[in-house]
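Hi team, as promised in this morning's meeting, here are the two structures we talked about. I've kept the exact order from the run log so nobody has to guess. The first one is mostly here for context; it's the second one we should focus on when we meet again. Sequence first, then the predicted C-alpha cells.
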Amino acid sequence: MARPQNNYLGVTSARKAVSATLVYLVLAAIALVFAAPLLWVVLASIDPGAQLSVAWPAHPSFDNFAAVLTVDTTLRPMANGLLMCGLSAILTMVVSVLAAYPLSRYQLRFNRPFLYIILFSTGLPVTAVMVPVYSLFVQLNLLDSLVGTAIFLSATQLPFSIWLTKGFMDGVPISLEEAAWVDGAGGLQALRSVVIPLMLPGMAVVAIFTFIMSWGNFFVPFILLLDPNKQPAAVSIFNFFSQQGQVQYGQLAAYSLLYSIPVVVLYIVVSRTLGGAFTLSGAVKG
C-alpha cells in the first residue's frame, strides 16, 4: 500500500527538480543578457583596439583612461555634472520636506485632490514640455545656466519626491511633535528639531534618487545648455559618437566607467553612514 505513494512522491520530486532547473536556466539566460554589456564595457576599457564584440584584449593597457582623463573630456564635464545634480538634489530634498509636512500632518480639504495632481504629474513626459520650458528660459535669461537647469531638473523630480517624502514622514510618530509643542516649539521648530533628524535616511533616499535621475539625464541639459564648457558628463559622452562618424569604443568604455564612479561612491557612502533603516523604535516611550 505504501509503494504507490512513494512512486507519486518520486514523480513529484522529479517534476520539481525539472521545473527548478528550467527556472535557473531562464534566470541564467536573463542574467547573461544583462551582464554582457557590462562585461563589454570593462573589457573594452582596457583594449586600445576595442570593437563592438565582447573579446579579451590582445594587449591590455590603460591608454583609453589616459586619453579621456583630460580637463575638456572628463574633468570639467564631471565637475559641471556634480554641481548641477548636487544642487538639484538639495533643492528637491528641501522642497519635498516642506511640501510633504502639511500633507502628512494636517487633514486639509484639498489634500486628496492635491495628491492626485502630484500622482498625475509623475507620469508626464519631460519631452512634452521642453518647447515651452525653452521659451521660458529664453525670456528669463536662464538659457545656458547651470543653476537654471538644476532648478528645472529639481522641478521634474518633485512629484515623485513629495510622494516618497510624505511616506517617510508618515512613519514619524506625531506624539513626538506634540511633546515639542507642549514645550513651546512652533511648527517649523518641531519639524527641524524632531521630524527631520528622525527621517534623515528617508531624506537621503530622496536625495540619492534625485541625484541619480539628474546624473543620467541627457535630454534636458542637452537642450538648455548650449556652451560646451557648461555641459555635464551625461552630454559630453555624446562627443564619442560624433567624431568624423567613427566611434572610439575603447575611450567610450573608459569614459563610461569613470562616469559611473560618482553614483557608486554616493551609494556606498550613504549605505555605510545611514545603514538604510529608521531608528524610531526607541523614540516613543510606551
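And here is the second protein, the one for discussion:
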Amino acid sequence: MLMRLAWRSIWRNRRRTLITVISIGLGLACAIFFISMADGVYVQLINDAVRMQAGHVTLEHPEYRDAPAIDLYLTGTNALRAQIEGMAHVERTKLLILGQGVARSGAGTVGVAVMGVEPSVEAKTSPLVKNIISGRYLEDTDGSRVVVGSKLAERLHLREGKKLVLTTNDISGALTEELCRVAGIFETGAEEMDGYLVQTPIGFLRKLFNFPPDSATQLGVILNKPGAQKKVQKQIQSMRHNPPFAVRSWQEVMPELASYIKLDKGSNLVLQAILLFLILFTIFNTILMSVLERQKEFAIFKALGTPLSLMRGQLLMESFFLGLIGCFLGLLVGGLASYALQVWGFDITRIYSSDISISGFAISPIIHARLSLSMLLWVIGLVLGATLLLSLIPMRRATNVHVADTLR
C-alpha cells in the first residue's frame, strides 16, 4: 500500500519526475563512464610499463636504488627464478642488464641507455616488440645485434643492417667498446625511449660489461594477477639467498609513474565528487519542491489522523523510487558506453595528433575502459544511500506542517 502510494505520488507531476530521473541518470552515466575510462588507462599504462621494464616485483642489489651503477648486480639468478616461477600468480620472470654508454656511427655520437634483454621472453611480454617499424626484433641467437629507437636512428642515420659502435665502462671501470649491427628500429611515441634506448641480447651485454655468468642487474617478476603483488613480494622477501637482494614493487622502481597515477587519481576523485554533489543536489531539490507543493496534502493527512510514521515512509519510498529509476537509467547508459569503450576502445589520435607519454612511457593511442562490478555497486550504492539520507530534511518539514495555518 505504501509503495503504491509513493509510486503514484511521484508520477502525479510527470514532467518534474522525468527531468529529475534523467538528470540523475545522465550524471551517473558520466560518472561511471569517466571512472571506468580512467581505470582502463591506469591499468593499461601500468601493464605496459611493468612488462617493458622489470615487472610488478623487482629483485636487485640492495644498494642499486640509491646509486645505480653497473657493478651492483645480482648473482645466482637461475636459482632465484626457478623458485619464483613456482609461486602462485607468477606469469614469468625476466632478466635485465641496465647500463649507460655512447652510441657512435658515421653521422655522430649520442649518449644512450643500454638494456640487455632475453629476446624470447620479451617477445611474449614487452609491448616494445609490437612497435618495431623497420627490420625485426631481437632473437636469442643474435650476438651483437641491437634494436634502437626511431629518434636515435634518425640522429645517427641508422637503418636495418647498419653498423653502430657501443662504448661504455665495464664493471671494473675499464673502457670497452663493441661493433654492433642494427636488427630493427622501434617507435613507442615516448621521446625518452625512442631517442636514447638501445636493446641488445643479454648474453652480448654480459660480455660487454664483463658480467659473470648467471648474473643480471634486475630480475623482474611479471604477475598474471596484479592484485597479488604484495603477497608475492612478501613470499620473495622470505626467500634466503646469498648474497642478499632487495625486493621492490614497481611503485618503488618507477616512482615518477606511480606519483603521476596517484596525483591523477586525486584529481579525478575531486571531479567525481563534484559530479555526485550535483546529482544529489538535484535529488534533494526535487524532493523538497515536491514537499513544499504538497503542504495542504500533508496537513489534511495530519488532520485525518494519519500516523507520522506512515507519512515519513511514503516520502522515503518516493525518494527511493526517484533514486532507483535514475540509477537504472545511469547504469544502462553509462554501463553500455563503458562496455563499448572496453571492447572496441577509442583512438585518441583523432583528438591529439602528437604522441602522449607519461614519465617516459607512451600511452597507447587506443584507450580502453575497465568496467568492474565493484565500481558499479559502489557508485550506485553511494547515490541511493545519499538519496535516502537527503530525504530526511524534506521529510521533517512535511511532518512538522502546521495544520490550522496551512488549511486556513
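Starting points for discussion:
The mean pLDDT is 84.
The radius of gyration is 31 Å.
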